[in-house]
Amino acid sequence: MKLATFLPPGSDAPRAGEVRGDDVIAFEGTVLDRLASGDRTAARGEAFPLADVTLLAPVPRPRAIFGIGLNYRAHAEEQGGSLPERPIVFMKLPASSAAPGEPVRCPAAVRRLDYEGELAVVIGPDATVAGFAVADDVTARDLQKREPQWTRAKGADGFCPWGPWITTADEVADPEMLQLRTWVNDELRQDASTSDLIFGIREIVDFISETCTLEPGDLILTGTPSGVGTWQDPPSFLGSGDVVRIEIEALGAIEHPIA
């Protein structure tokens, strides 16, 4: 099942629905309600052509957005460092959450804006994995380099476009065997498999759960593979008018411009 939050044509009132083929079928309540209850009953409401709706972040304001740093072997190796012994956890803010196609606005304090295509884990009841989505862990590299805490570098408003919907876990045979690709202006920058993850999904969830209670709708961004802008030769950062597209096998794609 694919769970989406969307604006119907001509409406500014968000609806929740199930994506089926080229349509989204509305259901009562919210995507978060479905995540919390585990309800997977097929939607039976009004149908809208997917091409005619505006997709929003599936959970518009997640309670918590966790990120995992240096969690792909090739990404760690391109930086010339050793592999981490345990997950490196950081946080984004609820206000970082953005619709999959929403323009990312670069704060005036940032000079080196970068993309990070990532597999997002969506939490269900009792720290279960309810589903998966595509995310961009947008990062201000200049702030990240000079500030040991990454809150400003990664937690700025709109720095987590994600979606296009949540694919429930029962529909993903092996989330640690998915192809992930990122393009900037149609140039392929990242092309990797989640099989290159250093710490697997269950290991990450359990590690965070040792100290933090995970709740339905929480997100965990599981890390980015090699090929980010800062490690291009020469480095290549995002600017106004650029378009980032991130696609993960079986989960769909998000595409957003830089304002």
From TrEMBL:
Pfam families given in the database record: FAA_hydrolase, Rv2993c-like_N
Keywords: Hydrolase, Metal-binding
GO molecular function, one term: isomerase activity
Gene3D superfamilies, A to Z: Fumarylacetoacetase-like, C-terminal domain
Fumarylacetoacetase-like C-terminal domain sequence ranges: 65-258
The keyword tRNA processing is annotated on this UniProt entry: no
GO process terms (BP): carboxylic acid metabolic process
Domain Rv2993c-like N-terminal: from-to ranges: 1-58
Family: Belongs to the FAH family.
Name used for this protein in its record: Fumarylacetoacetate hydrolase family protein
